[in-house]
Request: fold
Amino acid sequence: MRLAFLGTPEPALPSLRALVEGGHDVAIVITRPDKRRGRGGEPSASPVKALALELGLHVGEHPREIEGLDVQRGVVVAFGALVSAALLEQVPMLNVHFSLLPRWRGAAPVERAILAGDETTGVSVMSLEATLDTGPVHLARPLDVADKRAGQLTSELARIGADALLEVLASPALLDHPHPQRGEATYADKLTSETYHLVPSMDQATLLRTVRLERAYTFIDGRRLRVLRAHAVAGDAGDGALRVVDGEVVLVGAHGHIALDEVQPEGARPMPAPAWLAGARLDVNAAAWS
Reply:
């Protein structure tokens, strides 16, 4: 099938590669413009653009470049921008969305599933509509969340989504007969810096789920500390103290405690929490987190 592909970050790569390896004719790849990384850095291509160029595909930066092309469908995977209703009238599009719709429509379905404590998430291949993730579903594939971190869960969903996409494109029955979304819709709002902030008022489960997002941080006596890995420990309710218990660095919370396994101070490399504490020059008997 002759297709247009719209995508930007790394989770879109399995679908693009699968389409090419599956024999589909990808006439154009639309991705977000090159982005400058860091202060004074040179603009760098998105992961999708880099792969598209490697595969010898034509690359554009705006969906309007699809207009007038002889393509049968578009495929959208984590593109990062809206596609106009006018273009969708000209070119029907499939969207590989990383949730079991209508749960977690929106920008951050993987992270919201983790934060909510969902036991199961999945992938939905749906028909794209101008409204937010409301289109009928051609195929859905579930996946256990378990204790997976956001990166691992996203990678698994990306691979499952690529397989589901090929299955839909290969099946006239699936392609031509999607079913309306069923159930209560929930929305995966965009994440902010505060989403990742660990504070003593959180319960233990929320603390650990936030760490699994892989961008968690807290402040230790006013100094920012990234928390890369942690695990649950028992203990009485506390008021935000930092303690060393049986050799473990523990954040004492009002509704549960966590022990830090791996952390990263500002301007330093990741390290085991005890190594960080040994060099942090903190008064452990008075240190607090916030």
Q: What stands out?
A: The mean pLDDT is 95. The helical segments are 13-21, 47-54, 85-90, 109-115, 150-170, 172-176, 204-211, 273-280.
